[in-house]
Design brief:
- By secondary structure, the protein is an all-beta fold.
- The chain is 2% helix and 49% strand.
- Strands 19, 20, 21, 22, 23 and 27 form a six-stranded mixed sheet that branches.
- The longest helix has 7 residues.
């Protein structure tokens, strides 16, 4: 589905188009018309008679660009001694515009082909197809000198703070395989997409196995002398004893300070897949009465639970999840019942909003729901937590890499920086093939161009 005016987009090469509605390739005898046209201003000439252009190659960077973002394409003309190397830049539809020097600006989601046509009358055309997305990749999680190739690591838990976002990757994509190696990264928040490289964090003390590290939440505690402690709570799944692991960090260094196992509490559940901080508060009853504490929301499938942990506590222990509510799926989309449950984000403002991330695919069974990433948004979640009733379904948002099932783009975690409407998320592409090691994965940190709040 595309928001562009055209119902067809042009593929690499001349005269080949794909019907976006029917997915069929149609070979046409003429060149496609363009929705916008620009010309270069560069001129060259050579002696000894006219040398016509015999070919044009269009190149330049990532094959996608976000709405409102730009990337520059380059047209390379052959032969190098062509008399007139001028080209005219055109686009196949209104998904993007292109300037007279090949600068492409995303306008609306969809696919667009950019053409560079020789101006010497030779009729030669070079082209490049680009996907215009609603999101923008801030950075790629590349290889580091840790002895573990990036393509062997799978992005999982993700959390967004005030100045940095944090992510963890693990050494297996399959949820049935044990994870024995985890790496943590942090990335400086920059809404303009001009941030630096992600920074590999270093365990300065012993850190136990974090399992599949499916989701994370950030928290702080300020000591009486004003010192601020910074914590990462990691949902450690796929362990013999699943737990909520508490990591303390200082800059790019981190270490384990607590591991909380789950009391079943007659719920017949021992593991949870997602977490989000609900609030800092002082309980008025119970074992933590009068003690500054943190309330977290835990997800297990469509069921949600709360736990309360003493805010300054460092050490091992156990927690007893309290069942609060189950979320209803939108009736118009029964297929969501088969989607994977990825992560959650709770926004503690107004009536409370719950953002519930799902993904339509399963790497263990090979099932395929077009690899769609869906965020379901629920309102009145504060009331749902306080009174154990279902929250109200508000809307859904799809964030997808492309229209082809061969493009397997899986979002693992979501979050909003403080006082910001910009959604950040953590994802990876299954079909990435890094050199020289062969098939693998490419992780990245992205921002969504749309205001989904």
């Amino acid at each position: 589905e595309s928001g562009c005016d055209a119902t067809m987009f042009v593929c690499e090469g001349i005269g080949a188009v794909i019907d976006c509605l029917n997915g069929e390739e149609i070979v046409l005898p003429t060149f496609p018309s363009s929705s916008s046209t620009s010309s270069t201003t560069t001129t060259t000439s050579g002696g000894g008679g006219t040398v016509l252009v015999t070919g044009i190659t269009v190149s330049g960077g990532d094959p996608s660009v976000g709405v409102g973002k730009q990337r520059t394409l380059t047209a390379t003309v052959t032969p190098s001694n062509a008399t007139n190397k001028n080209v005219t830049w055109t686009t196949s539809n209104s998904c993007a515009t292109v300037s007279n020097i090949g600068v492409v600006t995303g306008v609306s989601p969809g696919f667009v082909t950019i053409y560079a046509t020789a101006k010497d009358g030779s009729g030669k055309i070079g082209s490049k197809t680009i996907e215009i997305t609603t999101y923008h990749r801030q950075t790629e999680l590349k290889n580091f000198t840790s002895g573990i190739a990036a393509h062997n690591q799978v992005p999982q838990g993700f959390a967004v703070g005030t100045n940095y976002c944090y992510s963890v990757d693990v050494n297996s994509v399959a949820t049935t395989s044990p994870n024995t190696v985890q790496r943590l990264f942090r990335y400086k928040l920059d809404g303009n997409g001009n941030g630096g490289e992600p920074e590999l964090m270093t365990p300065s003390k012993t850190v136990g196995n974090l399992g599949h590290a499916n989701d994370m939440a950030l928290a702080t505690y300020t000591e009486s002398n004003g010192t601020v402690r910074y914590y990462l709570y990691v949902v450690a799944t796929q362990l013999n004893t699943p737990a909520l692991v508490k990591l303390r960090y200082d800059g790019a260094n981190y270490w384990e300070v607590g591991r909380y196992t789950y009391n079943k509490n007659n719920q017949n559940l021992t593991a949870y897949s997602s977490i989000s901080l609900v609030k800092y508060y002082t309980p008025t009853s119970g074992a933590l009465q009068g003690i500054l504490s943190i309330q977290f929301l835990l997800g297990n499938g469509l069921d949600f639970f709360t736990i309360t942990i003493r805010r300054d506590h460092e050490g091992n222990g156990s927690v007893t999840p309290s069942r609060k509510f189950s979320i209803p799926l939108p009736p118009a989309h029964p297929e969501y019942a088969n989607y994977g449950r990825q992560a959650i984000y709770y926004e503690n403002s107004g009536t409370g909003k719950l953002y519930y991330l799902m993904w339509g695919g399963n790497p263990d069974t090979g099932s395929n729901q077009n690899h769609k990433n869906v965020i379901l948004v629920y309102e009145d979640t504060k009331n749902a937590i306080d009174n154990s009733v279902a929250p109200n379904y508000e809307k859904r948002i799809e964030i997808n890499k492309g229209s082809s099932n061969s493009i397997k783009f899986e979002i693992e975690g979501i979050g909003f920086p403080a006082n910001s409407d910009v959604l950040w998320f953590h994802a990876y592409e299954w079909n990435y093939v890094p050199s020289p090691n062969g098939t693998g994965l490419k992780g990245g940190i992205y921002t969504e161009s749309r205001n989904i709040k």
